[in-house]
Design a protein that fits this description.
Layout: E1 3-4, H1 10-13, E2 33-39, H2 49-64, E3 73-79, H3 84-97, E4 102-105, H4 109-121, E5 127-129, E6 145-150, H5 152-163, E7 172-176, H6 180-195, E8 202-205, H7 214-223, E9 227-231, H8 234-246, E10 253-255, H9 261-268, E11 277-281, H10 293-302, H11 316-329, H12 335-342, E12 348-349, E13 365-367, E14 371-376, E15 379-383
Parallel strand pairs: 1-12, 2-3, 2-4, 4-5, 5-6, 6-13, 7-8, 7-9, 9-10, 10-11
Antiparallel strand pairs: 11-14, 14-15
Length: about 400
């Protein structure tokens, strides 16, 4: 059963009363409760700055409705530029200089894996991942690290199951980055195919920053796959799809949550190039739906110039989980109690994510599944099965 928290659309009505002061030595002694965040605000992954802004809009709206138990949330946001060294510097600043109560940050898996030793050194510091998906972040379990987004393991399994949902799909190829993020999808995908008695008919690598996918596309075309799994970031996914269209690779392409279908369509500008595109979708409803309208309104209230797409809301579920746990702590807000309550979070339904979130002392990967999204007559639509490509 999905447990719907009082904070669902909580940023819309999250006004609760103060319950008094807290101990200065063991808690964040006075308002506000300070939350540290780091994300790629600049650089090649700056398209994901909106994941930070989405979570930030939740915290801002909670503050505008009175805070949590009478205490405001103060967000300290740092730019990591998707650079591990900058990520480490950001975490050191947030902990040593800003002295945050917890950290809710990280979109790039390479950055999060680089800062992981810093987090492990202070096992009292709660760290909640913002959007990074590598399964290595939460497996094996680290006591103070929680991952409230679908891991690369969950994404890869979903992509393979979806590709094989059409009975005639027997030959699956893969195009992937070769970095840590790519590898963290690639091996689970290969393992999932193996469980179905299949091996990839071709695997090609397309590195980040590349501008031409001709050679990779021609290799895939020669393999004659029934479907292609694309483990690519937005810019490279758009380049590959444009070249696939150019060279006649007209088979379904199934992408990760690292890209959004709306942004990919805008980047390519060729409707026929995305007509067979399916992307892992971590949200419960399409962002244009009536159910998501309140979230879009909250975001636009604080970030009116920012475009909205799927990535905007990936960090919202984690922000709501953090707020829910802080609320349940009452006036005694300590790191120890926060970590304990996070381990008790069960079937938490943010209303935003495609599935509920659960943590336990033995499992800190909170999301196990997601949806798939596809353009149907140009409209992003959640779908359950792979359809036959149109001629």
């Amino acid at each position: 059963m999905r447990r719907t928290t009082a904070i669902v659309l909580g940023a819309l009505s999250f006004a609760v009363q103060s319950t008094g002061c807290v101990n200065a030595q063991e808690t964040t002694s006075s308002p506000p409760i300070k939350i540290g965040m780091f994300a790629p605000l600049t650089g090649s992954a700056a398209f994901a700055a909106k994941v930070a802004y989405g979570a930030s809009s939740v915290y801002k709206d909670i503050n505008d409705h009175g805070g949590i138990n009478g205490r405001k949330l103060e967000l300290v946001l740092e730019d990591d530029a998707c650079d591990p060294n900058k990520g480490i510097a950001a975490v050191k600043k947030l902990t040593a200089q800003d002295r945050v109560f917890l950290i809710h940050g990280g979109w790039c898996s390479n950055v999060v894996l680089a800062i992981k030793p810093e987090i492990e050194r202070d096992n009292t510091l709660p760290y909640v991942v913002l959007g990074a998906a590598s399964a290595s972040i939460s497996t094996p379990v680290t006591a103070n690290i929680f991952q409230p987004v679908a891991t690369t393991q969950a994404v890869a399994n979903t992509m393979v199951d979806f590709a094989l949902s059409r009975p005639d799909v027997k030959k699956v190829a893969i195009i992937s980055h070769s970095d840590e993020w790519g590898k963290s999808h690639l091996q689970p995908a290969i393992d999932a195919l193996k469980a179905h008695g299949l091996t990839p008919v071709e695997t090609v690598y397309f590195e980040r920053g590349s501008t031409d996918a001709t050679s990779q596309t021609l290799k895939l075309r020669a393999a004659k796959p029934d479907a292609v799994l694309a483990v690519l970031y937005p810019a490279e996914l758009a380049i590959y799809l444009r070249d696939a269209y150019k060279y006649g690779v007209r088979v379904p392409t199934i992408g990760t949550q690292g890209a959004s279908i709306e942004d990919t369509e805008r980047r390519i500008g060729i409707p026929d190039a995305v007509r067979d595109l399916y992307i892992f979708y971590p949200l419960s409803q399409t962002i244009s739906s009536d159910q998501f309208k309140p979230w879009a309104e909250i975001f636009k209230k604080y970030y009116p110039a920012e475009p909205i797409d799927t990535i905007t809301f990936i960090g919202v579920g984690g922000a709501l989980a953090i707020a829910d746990v802080i609320k349940r702590l009452g006036p005694d807000v300590t790191r120890e109690r926060f970590l304990s309550e996070m381990n008790k979070l069960t079937n938490f339904d943010s209303g935003v994510q495609a599935s509920t979130m659960s943590f336990s002392p033995l499992d800190h990967a909170g999301i196990k599944s997601g949806n798939m999204i596809h353009l149907v007559d140009g409209v992003p639509t959640i779908v359950s099965k792979l359809s036959t490509p149109k001629p």
